[in-house]
Design a protein that fits this description.
Helix content is 42%, strand content 21%. The chain has 311 residues and is an alpha/beta fold. The protein has two domains: 166 residues, Thiamin diphosphate (ThDP)-binding fold, Pyr/PP domains (Rossmann fold, 3-Layer(aba) Sandwich), CATH 3.40.50.970; 128 residues, Rossmann fold (3-Layer(aba) Sandwich). Helix 4 packs parallel to helix 6 and helix 10 crosses helix 11.
Length: 311
């Protein structure tokens, strides 16, 4: 299976937007090669601004551009965007419901050797709590491209989270993508897995392994964390009677928390979560870190077995 960095999809979408829309501006915090916005700098220099290592100033500048009728996309490492500039995102952009788009690159523990300081594991919690904010966690490069185009088409703040490492491309140009609507990846009757990011592929591997044990696993790609697809979550809980969530993020405050918050009020069922358990990361090879912190197919399979035992 072909593996491509999700950030490539982000860069490709921005190129398309710059070609077709006069209102697009792309801002970056001195990491253009890493975020792929260097492609915009080279082809459409009049639409690109390097703000330097000044994330808070970049958010403020983007807010001013939005107020003037532009649609700014701002990009940097996810941990610095959601963390260092959170006050500006909250008070300047979200409070005023400005049309600013956020590209949070290098998300998750799979950043690898850069270590804990650069491994964003809290950003979904930080952004989904903000009123007016849309939060998207695509599963591969193609879905990242579609998510970026969808963000440009909507009005209001939107945060797109994507990793650095190449991940298997499990969708194609014909795969449906709709903001706020979970995508059915695999039919099943025993348990439902809601996954996003790199954990969609890992969940598929887990489902294939468990099928040999006679377990039928339903999988949804819950790429939009906010607004949450409550209708699909409720239907799945009633249909299979137990839920597993899987994400490359802290267990607290992430997509799994969002699903649990909804289900506990509307359809309580046995539920397990795959994610980082109240820990910072460390330096290492991405695949080793994903295994150590319980973010791979084996971890998903184990949580499925555990939730089925509680069903």
């Amino acid at each position: 299976m072909n593996s491509v960095p999700m950030r490539d999809g982000y860069g490709q979408a921005l190129l398309s937007l710059c070609e077709n829309r006069d209102d697009i501006m792309v801002l970056d915090a001195d990491v253009a090669k890493s975020t792929r916005t260097v492609w915009i700098r080279d082809k459409y220099p009049e639409k690109f601004m390097d703000m330097g290592i000044a994330e808070q100033d970049m958010v403020g500048t983007a807010a001013g551009l939005a107020l003037s009728g532009m649609t700014p996309f701002i990009s940097t490492y996810c941990v610095f965007l959601a963390g260092r500039a959170w006050d500006q995102i909250r008070t300047t952009v979200c409070y005023n419901n400005l049309n600013v788009k956020f590209g949070g690159a290098h998300a998750g523990i799979s950043v690898g050797p850069d270590g804990a300081t650069h491994q964003a594991l809290e950003d979904v919690a930080l952004t989904r709590v903000l009123p007016n904010m849309t939060v998207i966690v695509p599963c591969d490069a193609e879905e990242t491209r579609k998510a970026t185009l969808a963000a440009a088409a909507m009005q209001g703040p939107c945060f797109i989270r994507f990793g650095r490492e190449a991940v298997p491309v499990v969708t194609d140009e014909n795969t449906p993508f709709e903001l706020g609507k979970a995508r059915l990846v695999r039919n099943g009757t025993d348990v439902t897995v809601f996954a996003n990011g790199a954990l969609v592929y890992e969940s598929c591997l887990a489902a294939e392994a468990l099928a040999k044990e006679g377990v039928s696993v339903q999988i949804y790609d819950l790429h939009t964390v906010k607004p949450l697809d409550e209708e699909t979550i409720l239907a799945a809980a009633k249909e299979t009677g137990c839920i597993v969530t899987a994400e490359e993020h802290q267990l607290a405050g992430g997509m799994g928390s969002a699903v649990a918050e909804y289900l506990v009020k509307n359809c309580p069922v046995p539920m397990e979560m795959v994610g980082v358990n109240d820990s910072f990361g460390e330096s290492g090879r991405p695949e080793e870190l994903m295994a150590k912190y319980g973010l791979n197919k084996d971890a998903v399979a184990e949580k499925i077995r555990r939730v089925l035992a509680r069903k």
